Amino acid sequence: MPSYTLGETFELVREVDRYRPIYYAGASGDFNPIHIDPEVGRQAGLGGSILQGLCTLGWAVDCFARYLGDPGAVTKVHARFSRPVALEDTLTFKGVVTAVDGKQLKATVSAENQRGEEVLKDVGLEGRPPSSGAR
Amino acid sequence: MGVNISFVGRRWGPFHYTVGLEKLREYLAAISGGAPNLGLSGLPDDVHPVLHDEAAAARGPYKSVIGFPTFCVTFAMAPFGAAMLDPALGVDLLRLVHGEQDFEFLEVLRPGDVLTTHGELTEVSQRGRHEVLAVRTESVNQHGKVAVRGLFTAIIRG
User: Fold this and answer.
1) What is the pTM of this model?
2) Which residues does B97 contact at the CB level (< 8 Å), separation at least 6?
3) N or C end of chain B: which has fewer CB within 10 A?
């Protein structure tokens, strides 16, 4: 059984390759044109296509799920989208465990692009130790 | 000109969605640095087997492949999308950005699960120059259990 410790940290790095918003659109169904058509992104004042916020959020969840060792053990997430994520950005997610007891873990995760700018704010995650069995 | 506050309480749904194994794998590929169009050849090595490998997952605590938690967007987002496209609300999609997101994952998602989602507009407010719209969603599985609760917050840039 893995142990989880208050203050423990974890990290995930993700590259936004040029086709990521299109792959994510296909997988998620979010085909908002600002994600798949650079011209529409420019018209919207975003300088081109931007990644779906929910993809960035998914990466924050993945960062925590990998730490837990069980993707089914994540129970809650909150995040605020503070800055658009552009093609060819590199995002670094850094998590820290903020509460832990026998039944529940809480963590916060920061998400920054290659310029150190926060793309998510107020990220809060909750989960349970995977050893407590299946839901 | 913004969205009329009288639309608070407006509901969208039901939206029905049946979870499919290949769709779970496609979502996993897209979120893990792979490519859904290439099928499993696009799935990176470091993803958890419970998310794609039927034999390995059958031996695990869930007895089945399960969905990556945010796979729920494929169905939970339907009322939010319907709200943003509802001519009555008249949202300008070019000014729309996703402001905040909350999810509660209450039940894991397995292939064959049938989710029924409803959503309700719970907030219309001003935040500086911008307008804030929030849609709260609830997705119930075929066992009558709430599987996912979502809160989708949109910012209409002023």
Assistant:
1) 0.95
2) A53, A81, A84, B154, B155, B157
3) N
In the sheet with B130-140, reading across from the earlier edge strand, the strands are A9-15, A90-100, A105-112, A118-127, A74-81, B96-105, B146-156, B130-140, B114-127, B11-18
Distance from CA of B92 to the nearest CA of A (A): 10
In tens, the pLDDT along B72-101 reads 999 999 999 999 999 999 898 888 889 999
Residues of A with CB under 8 A from a CB of B: 14-15, 19-20, 23-24, 26-30, 32-34, 40, 43-44, 52-55, 57-59, 61-62, 65-66, 69-72, 74-81, 84, 130, 133-135
Write out the CATH class of domain A9-16+51-132.
Answer: alpha beta
Q: How far is CA B80 from CA B13, B39, B64, in A?
A: 10, 29, 30
Domains of chain B: 1-19+67-158 (3.10.129.10), 20-66 (no CATH)
ipTM: 0.94
